[in-house]
Design a protein that fits this description.
The protein is α/β, with parallel strands linked by helices. Helices cover about 55% and strands about 10% of the residues. The protein contains 6 helices and 5 strands. It has helices at about 5-40, 55-65, 85-95, 100-110, 125-135, 165-190; strands at about 45-50, 80, 115-120, 140-145, 160. It has a 5-stranded parallel β-sheet with strand order 2-1-3-4-5. Helix 2 (about 55-65) runs parallel beside helix 6 and helix 3 crosses helix 4 (about 100-110). The chain is globular and about 50 Å long.
Length: about 190
């Protein structure tokens, strides 16, 4: 393997996707910022969830809300539904892996909260069941995905679809979108010093 060629090809694919993602997600991102601003102003919270790398993204972004992004400011209510090992293992054992997120949304979600499901394929059954439960309960069901959007297309509004079939590249864009969401909300909520 030519390591330099590999290195360049990875960066080239990433850079190409940045421009495509910028155009594909501009409108849904603006809509997500608006609904999250309204929800947080009304005392609601953000619920993030996904599997594997998307679980890590959920945890990372929820933490940016509850701690800080750039400047110190008040904590914002965000929860990653991927962190409670007792709940995850009990739900998985008693109800099945497919219900990891829907059970937690049923317990923790309230009308007006924002559910943000993350799935690179859009077809993760437990994520989609969580989004279905969110809609049923009056939460706003939103999502970040890739490829064609999968089943999430019919479950989320807004839905940000990263136009790629490469899981790693999709995840790179998801973390970019997540951090941009925190930064944008700090501005719209009047919490940014910039």
């Amino acid at each position: 393997m030519d390591i330099n060629a590999f290195f360049d090809a990875e960066f080239d694919e990433h850079l190409d996707l940045v421009d495509k993602t910028r155009e594909a997600t501009r409108a849904p991102f603006a809509k997500l910022v608006s609904i999250c601003t309204n929800a947080l102003n009304e005392g609601n919270k953000l619920l993030f969830f996904g599997n594997g790398g998307s679980a890590a993204d959920a945890q990372h972004i929820a933490t940016e809300f509850t701690v800080r992004y750039i400047n110190d400011r008040r904590a914002l209510p965000a929860i990653a539904l991927t962190t409670d090992c007792s709940a995850l293992t009990a739900i998985g054992n008693d109800f099945g892996f497919d219900y990891l997120f829907s059970r937690q949304i049923e317990a923790l979600g309230r009308p007006g909260d924002i559910a943000i499901g993350i799935s690179t394929s859009g077809n993760s059954k437990n994520v989609n069941l969580g989004l279905e439960k969110a809609r049923e309960m009056g939460l706003v069901a939103t999502g970040w995905t890739g490829k064609t959007g999968g089943a999430m297309v019919d479950l989320c509004d807004p839905l940000m679809i990263v136009p790629s079939n490469t899981t790693a590249r999709i995840q790179e864009m998801h973390i970019q979108i997540g951090q941009m969401l925190v930064g944008a909300l700090e501005h719209t909520l009047g919490l940014s010093k910039a």
